[in-house]
Amino acid sequence: MAKDLMCAPGDFVVYPTHGVGKVLDIETQEYSGHKLKLFVIEFERDRMTLRVPTDKAEASGLRRLSSKKIIEKALTTLKGRARVKRTMWSRRAQEYEMKINSGDPLAIAEVVRDLHRNTGQPDQSFSERQIYEAALDRLACEVGAVEKTNPEMATEKLECILSATAPVSEAAQEAEIDTAGTSDTAAA
Q1: What does the alpha-carbon distance between residue 188 and residue 177 come to, in Å, rounded to a whole number?
Q2: Is the pTM higher than 0.85?
Q3: Which of 58, 125, 154, 165 has its CA 20 to 30 A from that of 26?
């Protein structure tokens, strides 16, 4: 992957468990008599610097930013209908965490879509909200980097997409049915 990755200082990359980072340098260090070539990656939001051996980049999941085409697919995923499995929350939470840590924008978009709540829908538990915010942040960082905007603007864009495609809540549907039923009765 190091040959495929071929990133230079200043390039943005994605490390699966940390999200979007910027390559600061490619340096050589000696450990136990062995010389290692390392990518030095800075994650500004986490105030963290990570060193990944170039020959272990593929195994660690380090990759370039997604293409605009993949980001468009992720945004299309957000417009889809939420697919919430009827399994125990602990099992779903594990699956969501695995998807977020995979670094795959399509999988992260599925988590954001499935955990998004609109007004009129039941509130999220604390852990649901934490996972949702982590997924939204991770996706927004990559969308922002690909579209060359800041993550806050990308978050607004994602929330706009989610709000625009929000399903009508059951309470709103029932209110609509009640209103339609009342007008039918009045006409009779």
Answers
A1: 17
A2: no
A3: 154
